[in-house]
Amino acid sequence: MIDVKNLSKTFDKKVHAVKDVSFHVDKGEVISLIGPSGSGKSTVLRCINGLETPDEGTVLINGKALDFSNPKQAQKDRTVMGFVFQHFNLFANMTVLQNLTLAPINVLGKSQQEAEATALKYLERVGLLDKKDSYPSKLSGGQQQRVAIARALCMEPQIMLFDEPTSALDPEMIKEVLNVIRDLVNDGMTMIIVTHEMNFAREVSNRIAFLEDGTIVEMGTPEYIFTQSQNQRIQEFLEKVL
Amino acid sequence: MDFSIITWDIFLYLLRGAGTSLLIAVIAVMAGTVLGTLGAIARLSHNKFANIVAAIYVEVLRGTPMLMQITFAFLALPAIIRMIVGHPIRFDPLVTGIVAIGLNSGAYTTELIRSGINGVDHGQFEAADTLGLSYKQKMKMVILPQAFKNILPPLVSEFITLIKDSSLLSTIGVVELMKSATTVGANYYAYLPPLTVASCIYLILNLIISTCSRVIERRLAVSD
Lengths: 242, 224
Prior knowledge:
The structure holds 2 protein chains of 2 kinds. In chain A, the strands form 2 sheets. Chain A has a 6-stranded mixed sheet, sandwiched between helices. Chain A has a 4-stranded antiparallel sheet with strand order 2-1-4-5, covered by helices on one side. By secondary structure, chain A is α/β, with parallel strands linked by helices. Chain A is built from 9 helices and 10 strands. The longest helix of chain A is centred in the C-terminal third of the chain and has 16 residues, at 171-186. Chain A starts with a strand and ends with a helix. In chain A, 39% of the residues lie in helices and 25% in strands. Chain B is mainly alpha-helical. Chain B has a single domain (3-223), classed as MetI-like (MetI-like fold, Orthogonal Bundle), CATH 1.10.3720.10. Helix content of chain B is 80%, strand content 0%. Chain B contains 8 helices and no strands. Chain B is flat and about 70 Å long. Chain A binds chain B through residues 49-51, 71-72, 75-76, 78-79, 81-83, 85, 87-94, 102-103, 106-107, 135-137, 148, 151-152, 155, and chain B through 121, 123-124, 126-135, 137, 141-142, 145-146, 149, 222-224.
């Protein structure tokens, strides 16, 4: 479903954020990207969605290469992917319901009623139906992130991308967000998750990629990465975070 | 100090002048906001040409006195037009004045809105992008509403400035509040009463505007 081929990205012409990264994601597969800060995990994810334009390499979705030099096409290609940010990025000038219906109405061309029905369905799913008329600033971080996930789901994406979805949350709110993501896993959603929640990654992922210095050091099943890998860097990293 | 010259009729005459001042300021601030929005988007765009045109517009209109711009538009521009079209064209002072003030306001508002857009969190742009919104939709529905909210206080200051600056149009014969007051003064050989009353009208107008703006600000604060 997703093919990342020889992806490279440099910032400011020197810092190699991502070096020749390739991997494949099957439909319904959950992939976690782990590794130390600055290892390029987020950059890989942002390139897949086109928030960053890679210097080299291609990203294929359902066999079709993304062409982000063509804004109109990029806009269309993007809507098959939902993106969840570390800092939620709910539209501050809109209520929760408006956040959820904006893109379905203006991008997918749904009617107001149709969009609202979908929005309420997903709000109920993330357990925040009673917050539909609140502004984001009135919600806790965990609630904002659940709304952000619902907002992405309202576009009926085939793929969900999570960029450190719990890194900006207070510890007591992490669980409620992970539960929502776990619910999506059970639904068979194709997902790529950049995370520092090792136990969660181990629990939900089909495969885990360990990145360091912009390259994939190893990629394999959670069992392999966590218990069998002989790679010294991975062992050191896991020792520190577990 | 004989305020008895300010009869009801004279007062109405001054009020009519105030109405003209308000009209000038309202149209100019609306034109300025539209121009400022376009200017800010041009200044922030990656299009070199749009960028340079907007930069020149801002620098020229901020770098020369408004009185000069008004006088230039009324007295010098007709000469240029005559050179081009070959026959004299009469410029209406009020229309010319409003255009000049509107253009001037647009330059200041360009910088204002630009700083407002820059003040919107980058994540808001990215979220709009990932949801597939077009550039136009993103600016119109997500970014500009937040930018305007951020810059409402200086935008109101701009409006108040324009009400006061509309008095400059008295120099090209527009009968706004300032001109009305000096005309009354000249007719009765007494400047103190009409100028005092006119000043009070300016002050009251601007107090009403700043009060309204505080109410709007409070309303917009619901999303804070």
